[in-house]
Amino acid sequence: MRIDDGLHRLRPPAVGPFREGAFDSPVHEIRTAAWLGVALGVSFSVCFLTGLFSHLIQHPPVWFANPARPVWLYRVTQGVHVATGIASIPLLLAKLWVVYPHFFTMPPMRNVAHVLERVSLLPLVGGSVFLLFSGVASIAKWFPWRFSFPSAHYAAAWITIGALVVHVGAKIGATRRAITRPGREAEDAYRAADRDDGGLTRRGFLWTVGGATGVLTLTTVGQTFRPLSRLAVLAPRDPTVGPQGLPVNKTARSAGVVDAATDPGYRLSVEGRVATPLSLSLDDLRAMPQRDAGLPIACVDGWSASAWWRGVALRDLLAAAGAPVGSTVTVMSLQDQDAPYSSAVVEGAQVTDPDTLLALEVSGAPLDIDHGFPLRLIGPNRPGVLQTKWVQKVVVG
User: How far is 368 from 251, CA to CA, in rounded Å?
Assistant: First the structure.
């Protein structure tokens, strides 16, 4: 008898995920994982780039200038951001189901590429789960945390995309071979993986995941893509529900501005680097040349809705005050200035665009107080959080 045979008999039998044949489902194979990895790589990359664009608009560095045209650009990019994030949920769950047996392979680290792959898994999987969970919770207006969601989501996105790059670098060769490898041997292996043993085949599994992703997308994307609005039964928001047919995220009462907004003595002040500081009543503003513009409200939560707005063009107001050409403007709300998004900066093409308005009306009627009465900022290609409501002051810098 060989010594190693005796040692084998002395070892306790493997149990759980370490026993032989523990993972015999045909879906636990590299080709399935490769296709799901490609789909996730595309969805995460698109989600990351559109989210980065949103972050740059809301927190612009010195080199970034938000374009005013096309007026619907942010509506599309943020709609795509939320849609790809939602679509990534079934893709990620399926990918984890397919590859989790590899977490129990021995030895755990075989070479440098394998070490890189394993090291990248913790931030990749953890970051992915955090991003999708926190993103869905945010659009559902459920915040079971005390940290700043935008800051945490942005930081986690960079960590996750960095881990994704490392993971792709370590797996790209194996992924390419799994998807493109030719020959009879590969075809025989795939047919064997699709054997009919009473369970779900590899192809059936991929079709199921694709179907779930498609259904989830079709039943939510209508909150932005209006032709599919009737299918949007799972969308967090209906963009037609709210005062004057438009949704509201923050009401005047929750912002604590009801008394100030309805004060008969309300006046808008224009100050800062101007030749003639202004203090204007609502009647003064209505007496100025009015402009109509069809503009969307595009929320960071993914929903959007278009409406016709009427008010004073910001550039006309600045010209009346004698503001220098090319000025940067801060529009301030009646809200407490410590409140999030109680002011917004307007600069560059956004200032000079004729459709950047201080609106008095929407859809042919005076603004509802929850839409910013007596005056709100509305401009092209701007997130809803930067379309400041209940405007009391315009400061020229």
Answer: 10
Lookup: tokens for 356: 């950047």
Rounded CA gap, 339 and 335, in Å? Answer: 7
Residue 271's H or E segment, with its range, is strand 268-272
| pLDDT class of 7 with cuts at 50, 70, 90 | very low
Q: What is the DSSP letter of 381?
A: T
Tokens of 112: 């440098």
Q: Concatenated DSSP letters for 74-97?
A: HHHHHHHHHHHHHHHHHHHHHHHH
Classify strands 376-378 and 357-362 as parallel, antiparallel or unpaired.
antiparallel
Q: What is the mean pLDDT of residues 41-67?
A: 96
Confidence band for 12, pLDDT divided at 50, 70 and 90: very low
Average pLDDT score over the chain: 88
- Mapped onto helix, strand or coil, the DSSP state of residue 226 is helix
CA 320 – CA 358 distance, rounded (Å): 14
Q: What is the DSSP letter of 385?
A: G
Beta-carbon contacts of residue 166 (< 8 Å; ≥ 6 apart): 116, 119, 120
- Give the mean pLDDT of 139-144: 92
